[in-house]
């Protein structure tokens, strides 16, 4: 059976790194894995999405509408934008974090209210305040790894040696904080 994970965010949030770590771990666990990513103006704060599909045999890296088992959103509005890709019985891991688009930052429109409530009323949702947790850990850049930990726990993938994956794929000076962030993210999911 093939499982599909859709990770979405805004450029600069580390969405692609989290996807690559996830893909590496799944491959090392023996799964057939396909990953595709879209960087849409990611350097300028644009939308970023990554699709990870794994199982015994994966034919395509693309997740169709209504095909994602889990939607991991690094930013609230992105969750709303991509929600139609989630299966009806899928799960959302929602980072309770706002990054205003250009039109919001310029004052032309307001950031939408009630996103968390709207999504939570429609689908099974785990809300994570990864920005607060990362700040409490002393490094706001580990928000993505906190969300990765929450994703791994939600997907019941704890049996993979994630510490090894992190050690081999992040810069040496950031290994310990990333391992700590990963474990913290796992602890946020019941």
Automatic annotation (TrEMBL):
<protein>
    <submittedName>
        <fullName>Indolepyruvate oxidoreductase subunit beta</fullName>
    </submittedName>
</protein>
<feature type="domain" description="Pyruvate/ketoisovalerate oxidoreductase catalytic">
    <location>
        <begin position="11"/>
        <end position="186"/>
    </location>
</feature>
<dbReference type="InterPro" id="IPR019752">
    <property type="entry name" value="Pyrv/ketoisovalerate_OxRed_cat"/>
</dbReference>
<dbReference type="Pfam" id="PF01558">
    <property type="entry name" value="POR"/>
</dbReference>
<dbReference type="InterPro" id="IPR052198">
    <property type="entry name" value="IorB_Oxidoreductase"/>
</dbReference>
